[in-house]
Amino acid sequence: MRRARRLLVAPLTALTVLALAACGGDDGAASTAGTQGSAGTVGTSDTASTSEGTSAAASSASTSSAGTSASATGEGSTTDASTSATSADPTSAGTSGTSGTTAAGPTGDPTTTGVDPTGDSGTTTGGVQDPPPQKEIIFTKPMQGGLLDTAIEAKLIELFGKAVPGSSIRVSLYHWSRVDIANALIAAKQKGVDVQVVLDGTNEDEMGVEWKAVTLLRDGLGAANVTECHDDGKFSACIGDGINHNKYFLFSELSDGSKNVVVQSSANLTTTQLRKHNNMVVIRDDAALYAAYAAYWDDLHAQKQNLDYYHSVDGDTGTKVYFYPRASGDTILSILGNVECTPGTIRVGMAFFTDARLEIAQKLAALRGAGCDVAVVLHDDAQYPGDKVLSTLKGAGVGVTLYPEGPNGEGLHSKYLIIHARYAGVDDKRLVWTGSHNYTGPALDANDETLLRLDDPGIIDAFVADWLEIKALAGTF
User: Fold this and answer.
1) What secondary structure letter does DSSP report for 332?
2) Is the pLDDT of residue 13 over 70?
3) pLDDT digits over 397-423, tens only?
């Protein structure tokens, strides 16, 4: 196993909240601008480039309907050895005291809120519950001794409990083996919430037995409300010809008063994920973003293959979403192409980075040569990162920290990019991209994937802090 090289990295400095400006052509594809929602600033459409993919408007989407190898899919091991088909789900074990919910209010100042699985959490003023933050970010991390960090699960259980009777929940997820959170979603159905789930077609253990959580979902929600993408032994995606690697949840209305809620995670709902660095973003009252995700969910549910499905949509609150697979071009390359090193800072925390995306490493190396401060933390095993990726980054002087897997599966599973630079002609721009998208070939052109861009100072500060903690913990297990 490669030895991690530790580098001193100065944290990115926080900036005054900047007015949103158009980020021209940051994905090499046409985007659709949403209308203003009830909170935040109107998202602006990026200027289309000559190599654009297909543009799709999502504002008219209906909100009510809203065993693969790692080398083939760009995902790590599909085995969830800690959860058998008959075992109880140990969701209460070993929750981290430092992970949890970092919330960014309207000013972008980060605050911390508690998580109550009953759905009644929140601070109160004079006996009246305060409104929830428009955006929240939750991080999990490995802990010594193989203990589990259940902060993401706890937040999801809270949100399931807050779904209003008559509202809808839509889920698209790669793997689901956790029983308690399945029961929480079934409880929402039982109180009158319209619940539907789309899963990858490989939700089973090593013996080919369907995970108990999926069986419970099918029985509790009704078989018609649980769709597993077709698995023909070659691919198990709904739209692409790879896997359905998505990890998102949609809520039309919650009891805290929020509507059009999008939850984007990097984590699968399996026990192995509770020993890894992951993140989850909660975005409330963003109608355009919600509609885009809901339209994508409808297309996943329809299971009509389209290997050139790629398009992007602007949300209402400084958000933008990109949907895959993409037949040509590379979104991350286009994003990096908008960076000017005057100076600039780039941070990457990436689970899987293969030589199929070598051009990304080459662009990061070029930006380092142009004067940007570039540093990455990468999951490290026999397969990742790619040898050419690693040599390219190190050869250019990019700060590289490798994160080997610990004895209990501790490791890095987040997938994000942070940029603080002159971006698309705008000085001192601070942005983060997160979601399910790894830097692998299948993540780009084969898998059902989602990449989410956020323009929010408080959220970005939280990602910077998380990146520094990931770097500090690399190699300590």
Assistant:
1) H
2) no
3) 999 999 999 999 999 999 999 999 999
User: pLDDT averaged over the chain?
Assistant: 81
The total of structural domains in the chain comes to: 2
User: Can you give the pLDDT at residue 129?
Assistant: 73
Indicate the SS3 state at residue 443: helix
Q: Please, which residues bridge with residue 227 across strands? A: 198
- Specify the range with the lowest mean pLDDT, choosing from 55-59, 119-123, 302-306: 55-59
- Terminal-to-terminal C-alpha distance of the chain: 14
Q: Quick one: 164 and 217 in the same domain?
A: yes
Q: How many CA atoms lie within 13 Å of 8's alpha carbon, on the beta-carbon side? A: 1
**95-134 as b/e, with b when 16 or more CB fall inside 10 Å?**
bbeebbbbbbbeebebeebebebebebeeeeeeeeeebbb
Side-chain-side CA neighbours of residue 355 (13 Å): 7
- 257 and 338 housed in the same domain: no
User: pLDDT of 426-471, one tens digit each?
Assistant: 999 999 999 999 999 999 999 999 999 999 999 999 999 999 999 9
* pLDDT at residue 467, rounded to an integer: 98
At position 281, the amino acid (one-letter code) is V
- Secondary structure E strands in 223-365: 226-228, 247-253, 259-265, 276-283, 311-314, 319-324, 339-350
Q: Which region holds residue 108: left if phi is over 0, alpha if psi is between -120 and 50, else beta?
A: left
For residue 117, what are the domain limits?
95-121+132-309
Residues 330 and 199 placed together within one structural domain of the fold: no
Of the residues 309, 333, 360, the one at which a domain ends: 309
Distance of CA 61 to the CA centre of its chain: 22
Mean pLDDT along residues 224-233: 89
Residue 430's SS3 state is strand
72: confidence class by pLDDT, cuts 50, 70, 90: very low
At position 10, the amino acid (one-letter code) is A
Query: Do 294 and 353 fall within a single domain?
Result: no
Measured CA to CA, the distance from residue 377 to residue 184 in angstroms comes to 34
Residue 76 lies in a domain: no
**Whether the model pTM is above 0.85:** no
Query: Are 291 and 400 in a shared domain?
Result: no
Longest dimension (CA), the chain: 60
CA angle (317, 320, 324) in 5-degree steps: 155
Residue type, 33: A
Backbone φ and ψ of 337, nearest 5°: -70, -15
SS3 452: strand
Domain membership flag for residue 21: no
